[in-house]
Amino acid sequence: MAPSQSPSARRRKGEKPAGLRGNVTKKSKSSASQPEPAGPLMACLWTTMKFLLYGFCVLLVPPVLNLAALNKEESVLSEYGLPYDIGWDQTLFLNCSGKGSPTVILESPIGQSSEVWFAVQPALAEVTRVCSYDRAGLGLSDRPHKNITEEDRKRRGPESTVERMVNDLHYLVTSSSDQPKPFIIVGAELGALVARFYAQLYEEEVSDIVLIDPLVEVLLEEDGGVWNEMWLGHLLPSSISMQLSAATGLTRLGLILKLLDLPIKAHNVPDEVVLRQKHLMCRPGHQSASVDEHYFINESFAQIRTAYKVKPFPSSVLLPAWESSVEFLMSIHRNAKPVLINGSDGHMIYRKPKEVIDIVKKLIRKWREVNQRKNRSTDRKETR
Ligand SMILES: *[C@@H]1O[C@H](CO)[C@@H](O)[C@H](O)[C@H]1NC(C)=O
Ligand SMILES: *[C@@H]1O[C@H](CO)[C@@H](O)[C@H](O)[C@H]1NC(C)=O
Ligand SMILES: *[C@@H]1O[C@H](CO)[C@@H](O)[C@H](O)[C@H]1NC(C)=O
Ligand SMILES: *[C@@H]1O[C@H](CO)[C@@H](O)[C@H](O)[C@H]1NC(C)=O
Ligand SMILES: *[C@@H]1O[C@H](CO)[C@@H](O)[C@H](O)[C@H]1NC(C)=O
């Protein structure tokens, strides 16, 4: 955007060429009228050397620049959460705010970290406790540690699959940070798979799950494999190119030149969220975790199919984007309640946060009412 804007703006004002343009013309003039010291051969060598030198700088400067910037930004960013050790030498970044039961846990979309909840979390924190966190490898959380025994790996599930994510989350919110139970788990896209799997494994800890634009296990088989093609042909390759671009420092360059868009496109995105997004776009570890989540999606789907064979899924609230996902989830979840919102998709958690907030608040009120009634009836029994 910006590069096309500024020249036209200059033209409109009819100004003399500004700094950048001035330099470019000067450079091209000087290289054209370069004094040729010893004939065409030397000139040719000279030009080749210059190109090699430029090439070297172009290859080397962006990654070095990027690393320096990443180091500088990290201290600022680590203020937006606390590192919790969940065992196996694995640290996850958790940010909890507010007081009260039930605790709302926010589970991010595929390849994204906790800042997508910037609008939802503070609003819910006014009425209850809310936690958002970065899954292993994403945000400031450690990469999934592969140094665990084969036995543990079988029990906790392979890295970057839903089973491991659920296992990590369980340790994070129970033994490691001890959040008040029960939990309302709000999951978007891949986060919805995590919410369902968690509720399936630890039903007694969960009062409700809310599924926003959920990825469902039949997705890649639907519509004659259109989604599978899309996944293999577009989503996975684009996450891989994001990783390469981050590692080579090209993303940093692209952001500086304003050629790249940030993942969260909405109004009123706070400065700290913008900073976080820029940092994470340039952070190779974060991008590589995103690639892994995309890459192992089939395995995650297989795990949730197995989980369903054990018992039916608990009740849930659906905020669907596709009708087919609604039909499918209604068929396998007890009492699933779809709430159709106009234009609901993965972006609604920051574009239409109010809808999400209202639904969760309703669930909180419902749980409290039921719980108070239970309390009263147990009180009566005790006094009798
Ligand atoms: C959670 O994040 C908010 C900003 O989004 C920050 O103000 C707050 O200090 C963080 N809480 C913790 C415990 O780090
Ligand atoms: C793996 O973990 C063991 C102990 O759990 C530790 O002694 C060893 O150094 C670790 N290896 C690596 C490569 O981190
Ligand atoms: C998922 O698994 C199916 C069956 O093995 C395969 O055809 C498909 O290409 C896989 N898709 C992805 C995204 O890995
Ligand atoms: C959804 O939006 C369309 C137009 O964009 C409108 O006609 C329709 O009434 C809306 N439905 C609801 C339930 O708001
Ligand atoms: C129900 O009782 C328990 C323990 O007696 C208490 O901690 C809890 O806050 C009560 N719940 C409500 C909703 O009043």
TrEMBL record:
Stretches the record annotates as Disordered: 1-37
InterPro entries referenced in this protein's UniProt entry, alphabetically: AB_hydrolase_1, AB_hydrolase_fold
UniProt entry tagged with the keyword Transmembrane: yes
Protein name: AB hydrolase-1 domain-containing protein
Membrane spanning residue stretches: 51-70
AB hydrolase-1 domain mapped to chain residues: 102-218
Coiled-coil residue spans: none
Database matches in SUPFAM superfamilies: alpha/beta-Hydrolases
Keywords attached to this entry: Membrane, Transmembrane, Transmembrane helix
